[in-house]
Amino acid sequence: MQKVVLIEKLTDVISNKYEAVRVIAKEARRINSLLIRGAQGELDEKPTMMALKRVLDGRVKFDYAEPESVQPSFEEDETE
Q1: Among 16, 30, 24, which Cα is nearest to 57's?
Q2: Is 5 within 8 Å of 56 (Cβ atoms)?
Q3: Which of 8, 30, 48, 75 has the fewest CB atoms within 10 Å, i.e. the most exposed one?
Q4: What is the pLDDT along the chain (80 residues), one digit of tens a residue?
């Protein structure tokens, strides 16, 4: 039996639907790596569905990292 999740429910938690997909994918990878290492969990669901439920329940925290300001440095060729 497939479950349908409306995008409106997801955008209530994370306003940008594309960012929501990124957060869910990252959480699913984290869950999958835990299951591979032998952690006990809900084995009746796929990691993606587990991640989706965790995001909808508000149990996944995420934050935006500020990009570092990179100043290009050009060194002069001193052999001339």
Answers
A1: 24
A2: yes
A3: 75
A4: 567 778 889 899 999 999 999 999 999 999 999 988 887 766 788 999 999 999 999 999 988 777 777 676 677 665 55
Q: In which element (H, E) is residue 13 found? A: helix 7-13
Give the N- to C-terminal CA distance of the chain in Å, as an integer. 73
**Count of positions (residues) in the chain:** 80
Name the token pair of 28.
């699913």
**CA separation for the pair 11, 36 (Å, rounded):** 30
Q: Where do the domains of the chain lie?
A: 16-56
pTM value is 0.71
Q: What is the CA radius of gyration of the chain?
A: 20
Look up residue 37 and give its amino acid: R
